[in-house]
Amino acid sequence: MSASMTFDIRPATADDSAAVHTVRSAITPHLISSPEQVRWRFHNPPAGERGASFVAELDGRVVGFTRAALEWETSVPGQGFHLTMVLAEARGRGIGTALIDTATKHLVSVGATTIRSFTTDAAGRRRAEKAGYREVSVARHQVLDLSVLPPVPARPDGVELRPYAEFADDPRPIHAIEAAALADEPSDLPFDQVPYATWQQTSWADPILDRELSTVAVSDGAPAAIVGINVSGDGRIGSAFTGTLREFRGRGITKYAKTHVLHRARDLGYTHAFTGNDSTNAPMLAINTWLGYRAHTDEAAYRIDL
Fold first, then answer.
1. Rama region for 279: left / alpha / beta (φ>0; ψ in -120 to 50; rest)
2. Residue 5 has pLDDT above 70, yes or no
């Protein structure tokens, strides 16, 4: 591509799903996705998100993408975010800046008073800081070679494991654990409001969520912890969500359940597992270190108050 080529920014549609997936996979290979999932998300936006997506085309080819929306899992109003990505070979032309400007205009139009952005590289950090954003957190994304798993720990007393599929008729216990654990995660924004209907429409219905691998740990008959797993078609899996209710923490339930799930994934032919946690989430980082996860990518979150 020559530097003289011009680019265009336009609204994205479901027909861009494959191209958007290509961009996302190149920039965030640690996040499990598929073209089918991208298309599904175009048709199933969360209620209250008021989102919009845009692509950048260079010589007729999609080389960049941004998604801008309001956070729907928080009680704090006006919290916007954008996920903006540009292929490496198309950078240096102002495409990223144009996409961010477009995303920002949309967020302002739907009432955002705060905007968060995310980046995995130094150039993105410099651009965010130049625009007045400040860093508020860092997520540690890690990868695990499933051929070198430690043995499954001893089963905690009274604990049994059940697949998500057994809760298909009523997944409310899974939602309850996810909502409670999400509210406890470190963040500059409280994720303390997860409506069941919206969760059911998004997280539960996600086409890459594997309901046979994903597991609920039940302690003396009470759902206590969850290990949600997303799958790809290329031998990789990713953590959708792992969480434990407060009253069941410190008993080794999460370590037992997650190790068991990873062993099952390996037995099914998966080769690598990805996960991500806030850099201050010491309990989960400790479990992942014990499991053998290794550093893959750091993702910085930036914030600007309008």
1. alpha
2. no
